[in-house]
Amino acid sequence: MSSDWKQIEIDIEVYKALEAARISFEETHNDILHRVLKITPSGRTESIAAPIISPREIAWSRNGVELPEGTRWRLVTTGAERSGHVTAGYFDYQGTKFGSPSGLAMSLYRTKTGKTTNLNGWRYIEVSRPGEADWILLQDLLRIAKGQR
After folding, report:
1. Any idea which of 54-68, 99-113, 134-148 has the lowest mean pLDDT?
2. Cα–Cα distance between 77 and 91 in angstroms, integer?
């Protein structure tokens, strides 16, 4: 840490908010704060702190996991990949909307005999938020939201 860096203590809620605001895995907490607080490289502040993700940008939110509008999702099972987008509070698959990852997974997955099965969608669905190239399992985002990293 250079002499220009200061260490601060934050509570778990602030940590969760920082992680939820992360737009890529390469983005540091300092980068997030610069972006959210709208601090320019010169050190001037353009405005007072804005919400990390404005309510109109959040398309889906559960258990501390927030997915912005346009987040891509995919479910890969037995070699078949199905995918869609998060739109207006739902996981959208070919025009059918699902309010939960488990409802989506159970609807799309079938056993070898063609029967439906109970699935925890958090464990099977990967997402890629707007501006990100990487995919992450919903259950990993849930761990981050809970501070379990």
Report:
1. 54-68
2. 17
